[in-house]
Design a protein that fits this description.
The protein has about 120 residues and is mainly alpha-helical. It has one domain. The protein is built from 7 helices and no strands. Helix 1 packs across helix 3. It is elongated and about 75 Å long.
Length: about 120
């Protein structure tokens, strides 16, 4: 599977959990049109595609992360690639866009079983 195909596949998976993905990217593009200046360096865009990490583009497009995106806009070459790799590592380490699944609460399960035992007469108060 090529880098582009892998990026598209992961992008589809990411959009399922973040349906506002395209809206956020379009809003970021609109913000950049109002500011005359550089766009995302080609090296950074290539690194995002190479890593197949659409979550990085989403992260950089969020309004609250605009200062970090502005710093990246001024970088070129290996510095931009390194910044993207460090950002990918940080997002992975902190689980920023990982889907949250509720784990069964052990205490709640114990209390439910205890209530059931009381109700059936297996346990007294």
């Amino acid at each position: 599977m090529s880098e582009n195909e892998q990026f598209v596949t992961r992008g589809r998976e990411f959009v399922k959990t973040h349906p506002d993905y395209f809206d956020v990217l379009n809003d970021a593009e609109a913000r950049l049109k109002n500011v005359s200046g550089p766009t995302l360096p080609e090296d950074a865009a290539d690194e995002i595609k190479k890593l197949a990490r659409p979550d990085i583009a989403y992260y950089l497009a969020l309004p609250e992360n605009q200062p970090e995106a502005q710093v990246l806009l001024s970088m070129k070459g290996e510095r931009a690639r390194d910044k993207i790799r460090r950002l990918a590592s940080r997002l992975e380490r902190h689980g920023t866009f990982r889907a949250v699944t509720s784990k069964p609460d052990e205490v709640e399960a114990y209390l439910a079983q205890r209530r059931e035992d009381r109700r059936t007469g297996k346990r007294r108060r």
